[in-house]
Amino acid sequence: MASNRPNWPATKVTSPEAPNLRQLTSLITAVVVIGALDLGREVLVPVTLAVLLSFLLAPLVDQLRRLRLGQLPSVVIAVVLALAVMGGIGTLIGAQVAQLGADLPRYQTAVEKKVQSVQGATVGRAEDLLGSASNLFKRAAPARKPETASVSGAAKQQDKAPLPVAVQEPPPSPFALAQRFLSPVISPLETAGIVFVVAIFILLQREDLRDRLIRLFGSRDLHRATIAMDEAAHRLSRYFLTQFGVNVGVGFVISIGLAIIGVPGAVLFGVLTALLRFVPYIGTWIAALLALTLAAAGPDWSMLLWTVALFAATDLITGQVIEPLLYGHSTGLSPVAVIVAAIFWSWIWGPVGLVLSTPLTLCLVILGRHVDKLEFLEVLLGDRPPLAPPANFYQRILADDPEEALKQAETLLKDMSLVDYYDSVMLQGLQLAHSDMMRGVIPPDQLMRITEALLDIIDGLEDIDEPVKEEVLASAGFDARFPPLAPAPALSTITDGARETAPQTGSPVLCVAGRGGLDELLAAATVQLLAREGIQTDLADYAQFSRKRLAEVNLSAVTTICVVSLDAGQSSAYLRILLRRLHQRAPAATLILGFMSDTPQDTQEHRGTVALAVSSFRQLIELGRPESSSDAALQTKTPTGDEMHHASFTAESDRLSPDSI
């Protein structure tokens, strides 16, 4: 059975805090960059639009070049098609606006009547109630005597009516009329011209610009620079093409739906929806508000309600079904990052920045993913988990939040087995805790809480994952749904002079916990996993094999002894002594020591013991099976005398090769 352990990033120990000078330099750099973006918007906005347009047109240019049209004709055809599309959209919007402008007074009257009816049903009734209450208070209050006021004769005189004054301007000249008409259009046309000219040169010189950027920023690491640029180009092109296709489809559906409902200007609102969907999250509903304004001009409220239902259904299906299938469930940005980026870029560059916020932020995330000094951008803005599951598991335990750790386990166990979860998450999390214990940062009371919480988690995971092999467990003579989670007297203890032995059938296994503060957790998890495999397992602790109590131990029926401890990766004298005692008491039993690191460095002290070293629960289970124990016993010989200090045993298997120690 192959392992399903995911390839999570290794948990790294953070370095000490950076000097204050470096933090100050980073802050000054950020302020300078933001100021440059604000001051240089007149130049940066067209250049940025040109770069993003080149990403959008690059796949089309590549397709045309595959048809052997040449680079220059391919670029020209792609740009002409883009101009034609933009011109057609502008013409369509203008025609629809002109058509709606002719009927605008009628729509205005209908909307005003709807507003008045709503006000009469809500605000009007509230005013009537307030008026009635005011009259009641006036009747209850005592009447006041009317005050007489003397009116002067000057006040009785009527003011004279003001003289009308009219200001007449001379008729505007043709040049003034042209300037008044073209001034709102000149600036967008100028920006569009700059964008298309720059985009043409970018498309013509793509390879040369790529090489220059690599020479400028990535000459020391060509591999990383090439991967970063390829990923940015691929993801941005894919994002724009997919988003463009989705927006066109949504706009078409909205146009057809509004036309069926009877909303005026259905084509205009469909085009606006397609364009505004480039604005994350709120673009669709901005177009919906504009459409609802005219939907309110209908004869009744049904048109308005159907319009709301159309936009809601379209946005829900697109956002929850279509886009996840096309984008692979994510664009690489976290939802919070998308909102913050939209606010930031709209503050810097206005409406254009709002539209470009997602692709610009995606570029920053890719940059942070491949540049070490900018890694914080990927952590803050990316959608990858900020903590690896082992670190997240240990952090939740430290925060006294075992419920969240259990929820994380239930989520991960949907895609992996319990043994893989123990290997890739819990074991590595316990190793982090063991490192903190060695540094002396975990007080005894906190260690007790951690142990209790983890025992509860192990107990809670018993009913999760693949079903227990009940038919095998029944033949073993015990119920594995409730494995012992604390050391209990079994076949290795004496009580009141009489030996207590559990029913022994098959090949019993003894699991011995080390003396570390977290070793009993490893033993509990080991017993649980072996029980799920139908292997009868008894649990003991290190104290039961002390020199004084060793004579009381009977290991005649035990075929496999597993010693589990987080100290196994170190040169621990007590583990070597324990293994020698166990080998003397049960020379025929297979000894297994866990858990070593993935690449343990065998020392002379470790080679003085007689055991098979494992680094994971999966390896331990494989060796704990009866057939594995028999094979290991046949492949080993019992050392005697001085040979014990040089013996080394290995288990030959195509699945694992634990090191002999």
Automatic annotation (TrEMBL):
- Kindly list the residue ranges recorded as spanning the membrane: 43-61, 73-98, 181-204, 244-272, 278-297
Q: How does it sit in the membrane?
A: Multi-pass membrane protein
Q: Where is this region: Disordered?
A: 140-164, 625-661
Coiled coil residues, start to end: none
| Entries under InterPro entries matching the protein | AI-2E-like (IPR002549)
Q: What is the source species?
A: Paraburkholderia panacisoli
A Gene Ontology cellular component where this protein is annotated is: plasma membrane
User: From start to end residue, where is composition biased (Basic and acidic residues)?
Assistant: 640-661
Subcellular location, record wording: Cell membrane
Family per UniProt?
Answer: Belongs to the autoinducer-2 exporter (AI-2E) (TC 2.A.86) family.
Biased composition, Polar residues: where in the chain?
A: 627-639
Keywords assigned: Cell membrane, Membrane, Transmembrane, Transmembrane helix, Transport
| Name of the featured protein | AI-2E family transporter
